[in-house]
Each structure stands twice: as C-alpha cells, then as structure tokens.
Amino acid sequence: MILITGHRGFIGKNMMAAFPGARGYEWGDGKVDLTGVSRVIHLGAITDTQCTDWKLLAERNVNFTKNLLHDCALCRIPIQIASTAAVYGDGKIFREEMANPLNDYAISKRIIELYAIDREWPMPVQLFRYFNVYGPHEEHKSQPSPHAKFRRQALETGKIEVFEGSDDIKRDFVPVEQVIKVHKHFFDVTSSGVYNLGTGRATSFMDVAQSIASDTGAEIVEVPMPTLKGYQRYTCADMTKTLSYM
Fold first, then answer.
1. What is the pLDDT along the chain (246 residues), one digit of tens a residue?
2. What phi and psi values does residue 72 have, to the nearest 5 degrees?
3. Which of 106, 85, 111 is nearest to 202 (CA)?
4. What's the distance, CA 19 to chain centroid?
5. Alpha-carbon 224 to chain mean position
6. CA distances, 78 to each of 2, 18, 165, 203 (Å)
7. Nearest-angstrom CA–CA distance, 150 and 155
8. In angstroms, rounded to a whole number, what is the distance separating the alpha carbons of residues 17 and 156?
9. CA 190 to CA 62: how far, in whole Å?
10. Residues assigned a catalytic role
11. Contact present, 208 and 150 (Cβ < 8 Å)
12. Spatial separation of the C-alpha atoms in residues 68 and 154, rounded to whole Å
C-alpha cells in the first residue's frame, strides 16, 4: 500500500487518483501509521512560498519530515519527498548540485534535502525538485499556477492580469501527469538522491496568457509587479540526471 501525505492538496488529489487503494494522510491526523505501507510519497507541507512564519515552517516542513524519514527507516519503507525548484533562488544553472534558497520556504526545503543526502538510509530516499506544476484540482490552491489562475480570470472577468514585463518572466511549467509518471517510474529506481522534475523548457508568463486569451477571447491587462521575496524570474530544469533513470 502507498501512503500519500498531503493527499487533499492539488498534487495529492491527482496522486490519489493515479494510485487506487492508496492511503491518505493530512496534518492533524495524528501519528503516521505505517502499518501495511510499502511506500511513502510525502507531499504534505506548507507550500506558501512567501510564508515567513519560521516556527510553522520548521514544525511542518522540517521536523515532521525528519521524523517521517526515521519512521520509514525503522520499517525500511522507500520514501519519495516533494522538494522544490525554489531552492535554486536566482541561480542560472538548474542542476541538482546547485542551490541558493532566498526565502524561508525554500530554506525549509533545502534543509530537508541536506538532511536526507548527508545520511545513509536502509531504503531509497528520493527528493524531487518540482518546477511549476499545473493541472486538475488547482481550484482551491492558494497559489495556483498561471495556467489555472489566468484561465479562471478569463472565464470570470474576461480579463487576464499579468505582471508588467511578463515577456521576460519564464518558468519551467510541468503538467501534474508528468510528475506522477516520474514518481511511478522511480518506484523501480533504488538510487537515493535529489532529482529535478520539470520539462527542460522555459515558457514566459505572457506566452501562457496569450494562449489562454486565444482560447477564451479574454483581454490581457498588465499590472504592477508586487515585491515578492525570493521571486524567480527564470527557471528551466536540467533533466539530465532524472532522464538517465527513465
């Protein structure tokens, strides 16, 4: 049986649908029960990239994950952990050995990466640096992808709001179906480590907006860029390491 933490979230809902019979866990459910579990996919976390409540981030993103790692080690249960491309910060090279986290959220994820890779474990421990994931079940996500946000704006208001200069803001947008495909493939990979999970292509926010505007007839409106700590203007996964296992 697969245990999926954060199963009510965007990616978690898609994971649960992809793995019938999986057991879900959410924060507040009590101690994690690993009875009968053969694999853990750990998605549960504070995912707000602008969160500055370090006590909360330490409790949920760091300490909870450390405890789960050790519980899995006692039972020799393989675990896959969601990390993030946010650990690259304003870097220009997106290979797994690089990291420059610039906000508290990214720091919390990098701490777990280091904690995991600096130790020997009796089971595979795989951490996936998610780039910009999009797809079904983003409806209630606090920070939806531009794909979901722009389409909702187009349908509700007839206008799509993009930040000024969005031609130059480019991200590696990866469909959630591809994320699930990689997780599933790595069930058969015994190597532990950190792996990028993107597409290897960067697309501008403006390109996404124009595509949705073409579909819906919505008007594109540029709005001022807010101040966001650690905001990345460019990401593009180097998929060499990940694809070497595919």
1. 999 999 999 999 999 999 999 999 999 999 999 999 999 999 999 999 999 999 999 999 999 999 999 999 999 999 999 999 999 999 999 999 999 999 999 999 999 999 999 999 999 999 999 999 999 988 767 688 999 999 999 999 999 999 999 999 999 999 999 999 999 999 999 999 999 999 999 999 999 999 999 999 999 999 999 888 888 999 999 999 999 999
2. -65, -35
3. 85
4. 18
5. 26
6. 10, 18, 43, 34
7. 9
8. 28
9. 24
10. 105, 141
11. yes
12. 41
Q: For the purposes of burial, counting CB atoms within 10 Å of the CB of 36, is it exposed (0-12), middle (13-18) or buried (19 or more)? A: exposed
Count of other CB atoms within 10 angstroms of residue 203:
17
Domains of the chain: 2-134+173-199+239-243 (3.40.50.720)
DSSP per residue, 13-65: HHHHHHSTTPEEE-TTS-S---TT-SEEEE--S---TT---HHHHIIIIIIHH
Looking up tokens 């790595």, which residue turns up? 186
d(CA 230, CA 49): 8
Beta-carbon contacts of 209 under 8 Å, excluding residues fewer than 6 positions away, are 146, 150, 160, 162, 166, 220
Which contacts of 15-18 are long-range, i.e. CB under 8 A and separated by 24 or more positions? Answer: 15/41, 15/43, 15/180, 15/183, 18/180, 18/184
- In one-letter notation, the amino acid at residue 142 is S
Token pair recorded at residue 215:
């579909």
For the beta carbon of residue 105, count every other beta carbon within 10 angstroms: 24
